[in-house]
Design brief:
Blueprint lengths: L2 H20 L5 H25 L4 H27 L11 H9 L2
Helix pairs in contact: 1-2, 1-4, 2-3
Length: 105
């Protein structure tokens, strides 16, 4: 997979999570989790793009570490949504989000 493909996929993941969040029930807990999830999921693509502009190998490794952290945090919030019965695993229907949850990030 090349750089442009990964840019496209990480952006698609953020957009798909936004669509999922729009469908969350209007309750305080869902709103809080949704807020956390939108921040981490959109940060995946933003930080990946930043890593593509790294000034050194060390800078790249550092930035990719942030991508990994944001990805793991996104998985955590998706698991919380499912485990707290706010959504079902089957209701996470958009392609990149479903693939992310089923493959564990």
């Amino acid at each position: 997979m090349d750089t442009e493909e990964l840019k496209r996929r990480t952006k698609r993941f953020g957009v798909d999570v936004i669509a999922l969040i729009r469908d969350l029930p209007p309750e305080v807990t869902a709103g809080h989790i949704g807020h956390q999830l939108v921040k981490s999921s959109t940060a995946v693509g933003a930080n990946y793009r930043a890593s593509c502009r790294a000034k050194s190998k060390a800078d790249f490794v550092s930035k990719m570490g942030t991508v990994e952290e944001e990805t793991d945090e996104s998985l955590y919030w998706l698991e919380v949504l499912v485990d707290s019965h706010i959504v079902t695993a089957n209701s996470i229907g958009r392609g990149s989000v479903r693939n992310f949850v089923c493959k564990g990030g």
